[in-house]
Amino acid sequence: MTTMLDVTDITPRACCAPLVREPLTAEEAEQLAATMKALADPTRLRLLSIVAASEDSEACVCDLIEPVGLSQPTVSHHLKILTAAGFLTRSKRGTWAYFRLVPGALDRVSQLLVAS
C-alpha cells in the first residue's frame, strides 16, 4: 500500500507588500504620539468637542467648568495640554481665558490615519 504525502511549497516569496506611500519619519511619529496622547483623555476630548461646538469654535474657560464637572484649575490644566498640542489657541479677556479651535488641527490627525 502506497501512502501519499502532502507536499508543502517552500518556494521563497517576498514576505511583505511594497509600500504605497511614504511612512512616518521618526520625528513625525514622535509628534503624532504627543498629539494623540493629548487626545487620549476623555475630559480633553469632551473639552475639545465643547469648544468645537461653540459659536465661532470659541469658549470661555468659565463655560467649560460645569459641563465636565471639574474644578477650574483642573479644566485649565487640560486646556493647557490641548493648547500645547496645537488643538486650541488661548486669548485672555479681563480675568477669563478664551479658547478657540485651531482650524484644521483635527484634520491633520485624521489625514495621517487614513490610507491614501
Task: Report on the architecture of this protein.
- By secondary structure, this protein is of the alpha+beta class.
- It has one domain (27-111): Winged helix-like DNA-binding domain superfamily/Winged helix DNA-binding domain (Arc Repressor Mutant, subunit A), CATH 1.10.10.
- 45% of the residues lie in helices and 13% in strands.
- It has a 3-stranded antiparallel beta sheet, with helices on one face.
- The longest helix is centred in the N-terminal third of the chain and has 14 residues, at 26-39.
Task: Summarize the topology.
Blueprint: H1 26-39, H2 42-53, E1 58-60, H3 65-68, H4 72-84, E2 88-93, E3 96-101, H5 105-113
Antiparallel strand pairs: 1-3, 2-3
